[in-house]
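I hope you will forgive my troubling you with a question about protein structure. The full record is reproduced below for your convenience:

——
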Amino acid sequence: MDFFSAGFTGGPSLSTQWSPKDRGFGADVTTESLLKYQAGIYAEWSLNRIFAIRPEIRYARRGAEHLIVIPDFLFPSITARYAYDYIEIPILLRTVPFDWRPVRPCLTGGLYAGRRIGRPEYTFTLPGFGAFTQPMKGLEEWDWGFTSGYGIEWVPGRLRFAAEYRFSMGFTELSLPTGPGFPEVRLQNMAHALSLEVGARF
């Protein structure tokens, strides 16, 4: 059993936003995912042959696009596209249920905390008026949520290569503007990602 491993992780993601309840003002919101990416580093400490603790630090781009229809509003619809970034720290429990070296399946799950960085922006489009880009003032700085992963790894010797599907669901409600003076929507982060990893085992 290898006690410690470390390496790099990254890949494309489909970023979107969701809400388990009303969007804030009775709007009909249709959401489209945006192609983004995330990248970072990981370290992993084995607890036994099956389980390991795995902290990560990753840069993640987030956002989504929404078609917002507001009953009895001045404009029949608004298209809003959001873009913002995080430094995220997931703390994961990882398991390898079957040790079929050099190829073996792996599962991960745990919580993450994210700190927003940079200058968040959104672009809103009004029918007949065009598109306008504005900074997002007052957007929540912290996010936290749940991450799970399902993948396969190849471990030739001391090297480790892996490909893993990752699903992340945020629990922080974000206050997202739809235009100057227009109502806000209240949504939470969600992402589907393909994580590609390369590392070394010690």
Q: What stands out?
A: The radius of gyration is 20 Å.
